[in-house]
Design brief:
The protein is of the alpha/beta class. The two termini are 35 Å apart. An 8-stranded parallel β-barrel has the order 1-2-3-4-5-6-8-9, surrounded by 6 helices. The chain is built from 16 helices and 10 strands. The chain binds ligand G3I. The site of ligand G3I has 8 residues, from loops.
Length: 347
């Protein structure tokens, strides 16, 4: 572009209102987030991080927070009772460090991806408690100062009843006490990391959300060190964050908790149309606008960022295209909508 062109563009940009000016600059998502002291993040899979240059470059450019999609789970960290395998987790933590990104640790206790040797091990209650304590101390201790928030307990509340999920190795082995044990062990291992409870389908007002609120209220009343609640936000196209999310956020914040959106994706019925992608964009924008307008909402983390690597098609046949970049790393309308929300000046 010649000098006259640059002058004309500069003059045009100067005429735009602040928000549009920022958006018109087409900065990466993280640039807008960092201006707000906010985190915009994505779940990371080790294999593409190692093998896909476009994946690494997009991740590095656009996000200031990462979370391991699987590398921090028991099944990946604990191939046997006596052995840890930190290679995947270390690769993600090192990538984050070298690119100025915060790290969420996901997850210390979950009813899924529990290794076979543990489930089939016929351990006593005390042995399981010791294994859990040792696991948390080892893993949280290793990443002390490198992981800013941990999903200490993931998905402990039953979808239907709102009570504690009974189909859990941890619940069967230790009873409800496993939750307090996990949080107290994590706090002992890292006095500074934010300790989260993380779940899905408990973002709006529902029986399950009531159950999460009851669990957290009980934990807080007993002085259990819980700092935040993660809303996974795995949504169907047509989703909008609204009044019931605001109502639920208010009662959780009243418990002294912070909030993060931790695993967002908005799946679309395939084959998707341009209208579908437009509605998807509105869903992402509404979640970002919600979180940015809630002082205690600290981060918006997506569960991946490109449709090339997403858990959705494997879990929900006929559904997909849930993220903000397409399979060729081209930004979708959802990316632009998310960027506009991040770029918009506050109220
Ligand atoms: O690592 C093994 C590999 O060694 C083996 O060869 C291969 C084939 O069996 O499996 C690999 O493990 C897979 C793992 O992903 C790593 O790729 C598991 O089978 C597979 O079940 C696992 O799926 C993950 C799922 O959690 C497990 O429940 C998804 O990638 C991951 O996106 C998903 O993430 C969860 C969050 O942690 C919690 N919230 C819900 C979210 C979606 O389910």
């Amino acid at each position: 572009m010649n000098t006259l062109g640059r002058l004309l563009v500069g003059a045009l940009i100067a005429l735009l209102p602040a928000a549009d000016t920022a958006a018109a600059q087409d900065l990466p998502l993280r640039s807008y987030a960092e201006r707000r002291g906010f985190h915009v993040g994505a779940a990371v899979a080790v294999r593409p991080l190692r093998n896909d240059a476009a994946y690494r470059e997009t991740l590095r450019r656009e996000f200031n927070m990462v979370v391991a999609e699987n590398a921090f789970k028991w099944s990946e960290l604990r191939p046997s009772r006596r052995r840890f395998d930190f290679r995947g987790a270390d690769a993600i933590v090192e990538f984050a460090r070298s690119n100025g990104m915060a790290v969420r640790g996901h997850t210390l206790v979950w009813h899924r991806q529990v290794p076979r040797w543990l489930v089939a091990g016929k351990f006593t209650r005390d042995e399981v408690a010791d294994l859990l304590r040792q696991h948390i101390r080892t893993v949280v201790g290793r990443y002390r100062g490198k992981v800013s928030a941990w999903d200490v307990v993931n998905e402990a509340v039953d979808d239907e009843t709102g009570g504690l999920r009974a189909d859990s190795f941890w619940y069967r082995a230790l009873g409800p006490e496993y939750i307090e044990l996990a949080f107290r062990s994590a706090r002992e291992a890292d006095p500074d990391a934010k300790l989260y409870y993380n779940d899905y389908s408990a973002e709006g007002m529902s029986r399950k959300a009531d159950g999460v609120h009851k669990l957290l209220s009980d934990l807080k009343s007993r002085g259990v060190p819980v700092d935040g609640v993660g809303w996974q936000m795995h949504e169907l196209n047509g989703f909008r964050a609204g009044a019931e999310h605001r109502e639920n956020a208010r009662r959780l914040i009243a418990l002294g908790l912070e909030l993060s959106i931790t695993e967002m994706d908005v799946r679309v019925k395939l084959p998707a149309s341009a209208d579908d992608y437009g509605r998807q964009a509105e869903g992402y924008a509404s979640a970002a606008e919600f979180c940015l307008s809630e002082p205690n909402c600290k981060a918006l983390v997506l569960w991946g960022f490109t449709d090339k690597y997403s858990w959705i098609p494997g879990e929900f046949p006929e559904w997909g295209d849930a993220l903000i970049y397409d399979r060729n790393f081209r930004p979708k309308p959802a990316y632009s909508a998310l960027r506009r929300a991040l770029a918009a000046t506050g109220p």
